[in-house]
Description:
eight-stranded mixed β-sheet; Jelly Rolls; alpha+beta; four-stranded antiparallel β-sheet; binds arginine; 14 strands; globular; disordered C terminus; 20% strand
Amino acid sequence: MTLSQLPTISFKRLDTPEEREKLRVAASEVGFFYLVDHGLTTQQLDAVMTVSKQFFDLSEFEKKAVAMNRSAHFRGYNAVGGERTGGAVDVREQFDWMNEESAVVALQASWQTLIGPNLWPTNLSELRSKLLSLTEQQTRIAVTLLRALCESLGMAADALDGTFSDAPYTHSKIIKYPGTTASTQGVGAHKDPGYLTFVLQDQQSGLQVEYDGHWLDVEPRAGSFVVNIGELLELASDGFLQATNHRVLAPEPGVERYSVAYFMAAQLDSTVPVLDLPAEMKEKSKGVSTDPNNQLLSHVGENVLKGRVRSHPDAAKHIYVTPQAHQNGT
Ligand SMILES: NC(=[NH2+])NCCC[C@H](N)C(=O)O
Ligand SMILES: O=C(O)CCC(=O)C(=O)O
Ligand SMILES: [Fe+2]
């Protein structure tokens, strides 16, 4: 089947059976769609892009002051070279933040290293306020979307609520892809570990989705979020929904691409259940993927940690993780 562009889902229409049907088709057949009518204004989204560019324009010294190598919790800034996918360097600069929390004092398990405070630059105070308020709004949207998706699968809307209760684990990043000829890998082909991902793109294309053996360009659409299904939903649906592979091609020299990614997972200490989907969906399921290089783990903390250790081997050196976690991450 060919597809020239991703399906579009209207957030404000998700209370109708028609839109939920479209959602189920988009989520199960493509795993990627544009989400529109989500209620966030273009002014707010533009302001987020502006403050993100201001962050990347800070001096090396100011950015290094919040480097992920200084965090025990995989938070903060990575210059180009600080991330790998599929064993190769991703040509992107990025700043990561998660739930604002205090660190666990006596760790009982490696994944608890994910819990901790964010690092914020001292010279750009709007960054913290603008990004945390964006995250809060995105979480509200993600919870509603996840509930609509459960309903569209013939489940109760709250079928997965127990795994995130009032506070899902969220991870976000602002990203700059500098133009380069050194590599085509802005970020290599991968799946996202959580339930749902929202990507906000600027005007520059580069994001591609694997569909039916081809790479499909995800053209920027102002004001929309590009949503994708993550590994936890592949597990919960026993493969009826697939976490779709995607990548970003590095822009040409002289061109830059900016994006903002938001990853909603469940609570780190939870384990994702397998939903008992209707028979016609079970029959269509391809089953959970079994990539020896990327095992899907239903313990949420372990699945998230696997991705962090694999992505940021240098930052991981400074962080307490057991050899088992390193093994899962390679
Ligand atoms: N947090 C993320 N979703 N990162 C996705 C990028 C791919 C990541 N480097 C990996 O190896 O899985
Ligand atoms: O920058 C983008 O458009 C997508 C980034 C992405 O897929 C990721 O960071 O997981
Ligand atoms: Fe991704």
